[in-house]
Amino acid sequence: MLNDTILQKKVLREITSLGVHDCCSIFFRHKRQFAFPLHTHEELELNLVLGGAGIQRIIGDHIGHIGHAELVLVGPNLPHGWFTLDDREEDILEVTLQFRKELFTEGFLNTELLHAIRKLLDNAGRGILFTPDVAERVYEKLLALDKMSGFDSFIGLLSLLHELSVAKDTTLLSSVSFSREEIVSESRQLEQAFEYMNRHYGNPIALTAIAKVVHMSEASFSRFMKAQTGLTFTENLVELRLGHVARMLVTTQLTIAEIAYHCGFNNMANFNKLFKRHKGCTPKEYRSNYNRQMSGGN
Question: What single Pfam family name could you report for this chain, choosing any that match (predicted)?
Fold first, then answer.
């Protein structure tokens, strides 16, 4: 079992200023450095960064660098942070909107009208990256929302979430297995397939076996998974295993080889190649980088 307590101790737990009776809180900050350590909090957070090209972002097990306009929705308790890696001469604008999922009751979100918003909030558990054009449009909405109060602020928030829920070309940043998010799908067969892979990821998983679990032929299951996820069975399995690898790199002291074998990778050369292709760095660099940001270093 992975030692999640290590992750919880290393990642700063932020106590936000959002009051119990508040709809949301919004902050506009001009800065040249991002020095706040990797952290989590119970609230959902929409973070907009303008003029910060090259800044490093960490969301769950995702590590990347941002462009000029960055907009990410982060779910509750998902480790996240932005970090400057060099000295800046020009100000960066950061706008942070925080709100609680409890603001929207289960019955409210279950209505057909809010189906897209429900899916948005569920996917936020992995971190959602929006395109630069959406980021720039949302900036205007955030300016307007900051001037609202009372019931108007709730309607403004709902309108903003609707725009995000219908946005195209979004990217889910953190892997399901790192974020410990359940696969929520309209297809019970897809959920069963991922449940099986999550239980047995450390062992060989044959296409034949998983096809039997969902009562399909191998060919039908292959087409089904590709249509549902955009990835092949093998690609999904690799992503899931790498998510478990990433979590173990930051929650255990096991060697990289031990972690790789534990997560179902039996060929170290192939494992290292896959990890670098998906994460953009070697496992050693990933562990070092993540641990450095958890301790607040740059």
Answer: HTH_18
CATH of the domain at 140: 2.60.120.280
16 has a pLDDT exceeding 80: no
**pLDDT at 23 > cutoff 90:** no
DSSP codes of every residue in 204-273: ---HHHHHHHTT--HHHHHHHHHHHHSS-HHHHHHHHHHHHHHHHHHH----HHHHHHHTT---HHHHHH
Strand stretches in 77-135, DSSP E: 80-83, 92-99, 128-130
Domain end marker among 127, 150, 172: 172
Give the end-to-end CA distance of the chain in Å, rounded to a whole number: 31
* Sheet containing strand 12-13, strands side by side: 12-13, 39-40, 80-83, 56-59, 62-65
Amino acid 191: pLDDT: 84
Whether 221 and 274 share a structural domain: yes
Question: Of 124, 150, 172, which marks where a domain is finished?
Answer: 172
Q: Which two tokens stand for residue 73?
A: 């929705």
Measured CA to CA in angstroms, residue 172 lies from 16, 54, 98, 206, 298 at distances of 24, 20, 19, 26, 25
- pTM listed for this prediction: 0.76
